[in-house]
Every structure is written in C-alpha cells, then in structure tokens.
C-alpha cells in the first residue's frame, strides 16, 4: 500500500508539471531568437603583429652588427674574436662603436655572460626640406614630421637632397642616428670647364655640387652634369 501511495503522488506531480504553462509557449521561435543579445559588429583596422625582440643574449652569440647596451648606451659590434686560451677562461674580444657619440672602443667579455640587447629600430623617412637650422623628415604613411638639428645630422648634411629617403635610427623613442643611401645623384653647379680630350684617367678637379659639397671629379665633368657620389667615402663614382 505504501508503495502504491508513493506511485500515486509521483504521477500526480508529473501531471501538474506537464500542464504548467511555459513562459516561452506563447512566443514563436523567431520571437525568441530576436530576444537573444547579438554581438555588435565593428570595423576594426588590421594591425600586423609585432613580436617582441630578445632583450638579452649570451656573449657567445656576438657577431658583426650585433647591437648591445652597455652602461645605458647603445653600441654596435664592428669586430669580434672568440678566444679559447690554453689556460684560463674563454672570452670574446670586440671592437664596438657608440651609436650616439660615434666613439669606437675595444671591449672584452667573458664567454657565456649575459649581455643586454639594444633595441635600435630603423624607420624610413623622407627628407622634405630644411627649416632654418632644422632638417625636416616625413613619414610617408602617417605624414608625421621629425625634425633634426644640424648637430644631429653632422657632416651628412652635404649629401642630403630634398626628396631623399633615409633611415632614422631610434632607440627608446629617440632618434640617435641617420643613415643615408649608399649613393646619391647630385648636380654639379660649379666646376672649371673641361678641355677637349680630357679623360677620367687624365686627372681630377674640384666640383661644387647642389648641396654645397665639394668633390673631386674627372676633368671631363662640366657644370650641369649629374654625378653619382658614394656617401660613405664622399668620392665620385660615375656620371649619372
């Protein structure tokens, strides 16, 4: 009897639940879907991922061109030599140049020691014009301007020509250097006239270029000619 009573109560409860109205029974399927929150769609500008650079490495990884930070200053490795003496610990002998001052020194590191990397970045900018004592460079993507003083540009001013693309070196958000193209085409504005029969092997003469630089050129070069100059050596290369 007890078992029958329990069964009776359960069936009654099931009957009540099956007849209880559902709060969604009066809504159609489309209505119920419309009440669900929909994610907002916004146009987002694609930005390429920038992977973090290694901030430290071993002295065993040093090679020519490695950029390192020493005493809070950025340096570039010009030469290196791994030495393993018969007695004593191995070491790395280097010649490094300071990005900011341009000074070159020799420095030795113990093999395997940790060295901080100098995160020096290159960004291409176009030299647009000179404003007083300042040289104005523009980012052709953002049109942002960066101004450098004559002291920052140094003797590279004699090769700068409007419209020239250059590399600015940045370290910790500051411009620490300027890299020019290896060669540049410049017009000759003043030079002694060439003589008939002059050849490239027959000697040279000074010529003043449009930037004010003076370069020795072959005797056959005349005013109005365009020549190619190596910006690293400041020497005439050829006629353009």
UniProtKB/TrEMBL annotation:
<dbReference type="InterPro" id="IPR013852">
    <property type="entry name" value="Transl_elong_P/YeiP_CS"/>
</dbReference>
<dbReference type="GO" id="GO:0003746">
    <property type="term" value="F:translation elongation factor activity"/>
</dbReference>
<dbReference type="InterPro" id="IPR011768">
    <property type="entry name" value="Transl_elongation_fac_P"/>
</dbReference>
<feature type="domain" description="Elongation factor P C-terminal">
    <location>
        <begin position="184"/>
        <end position="239"/>
    </location>
</feature>
<dbReference type="InterPro" id="IPR001059">
    <property type="entry name" value="Transl_elong_P/YeiP_cen"/>
</dbReference>
<dbReference type="Pfam" id="PF01132">
    <property type="entry name" value="EFP"/>
</dbReference>
<keyword id="KW-0648">Protein biosynthesis</keyword>
<dbReference type="Pfam" id="PF08207">
    <property type="entry name" value="EFP_N"/>
</dbReference>
<dbReference type="Pfam" id="PF09285">
    <property type="entry name" value="Elong-fact-P_C"/>
</dbReference>
<dbReference type="InterPro" id="IPR020599">
    <property type="entry name" value="Transl_elong_fac_P/YeiP"/>
</dbReference>
<dbReference type="GO" id="GO:0005829">
    <property type="term" value="C:cytosol"/>
</dbReference>
<dbReference type="InterPro" id="IPR013185">
    <property type="entry name" value="Transl_elong_KOW-like"/>
</dbReference>
<dbReference type="InterPro" id="IPR012340">
    <property type="entry name" value="NA-bd_OB-fold"/>
</dbReference>
<protein>
    <submittedName>
        <fullName>Translation elongation factor</fullName>
    </submittedName>
</protein>
<dbReference type="GO" id="GO:0043043">
    <property type="term" value="P:peptide biosynthetic process"/>
</dbReference>
<feature type="domain" description="Translation elongation factor P/YeiP central">
    <location>
        <begin position="122"/>
        <end position="176"/>
    </location>
</feature>
<dbReference type="InterPro" id="IPR015365">
    <property type="entry name" value="Elong-fact-P_C"/>
</dbReference>
<keyword id="KW-0251">Elongation factor</keyword>
<dbReference type="InterPro" id="IPR014722">
    <property type="entry name" value="Rib_uL2_dom2"/>
</dbReference>
<comment type="pathway">
    <text>Protein biosynthesis; polypeptide chain elongation.</text>
</comment>
<dbReference type="InterPro" id="IPR008991">
    <property type="entry name" value="Translation_prot_SH3-like_sf"/>
</dbReference>
<keyword id="KW-0963">Cytoplasm</keyword>
<comment type="similarity">
    <text>Belongs to the elongation factor P family.</text>
</comment>
């Amino acid at each position: 009897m007890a078992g029958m009573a329990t069964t009776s109560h359960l069936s009654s409860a099931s009957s009540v639940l099956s007849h209880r109205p559902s709060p969604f029974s009066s809504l159609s399927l489309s209505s119920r879907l419309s009440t669900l929150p929909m994610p907002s769609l916004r146009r987002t500008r694609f930005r390429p991922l920038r992977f973090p650079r290694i901030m430290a490495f071993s002295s065993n990884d040093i090679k020519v061109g490695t950029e390192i930070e020493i005493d809070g200053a950025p340096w570039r490795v010009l030469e290196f030599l791994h030495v393993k003496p018969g007695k004593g610990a191995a070491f790395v002998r280097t010649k490094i140049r300071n990005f900011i001052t341009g000074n070159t020194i020799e420095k030795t590191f113990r093999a395997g020691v940790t060295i901080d990397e100098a995160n020096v970045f290159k960004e291409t900018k176009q030299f647009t014009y000179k404003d007083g004592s300042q040289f104005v460079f523009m980012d052709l993507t953002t049109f942002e301007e960066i101004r450098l003083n004559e002291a920052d540009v140094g003797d590279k001013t004699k090769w700068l020509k409007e419209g020239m693309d250059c590399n600015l070196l940045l370290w910790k958000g500051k411009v620490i250097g300027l890299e020019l193209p290896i060669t540049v085409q410049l017009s000759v504005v003043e030079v002694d006239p060439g003589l008939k029969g002059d050849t490239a092997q027959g000697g040279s003469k000074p010529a003043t270029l449009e930037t004010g630089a003076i370069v020795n050129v072959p005797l056959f070069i005349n005013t109005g000619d365009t020549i190619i100059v190596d910006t690293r050596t400041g020497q005439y290369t050829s006629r353009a």
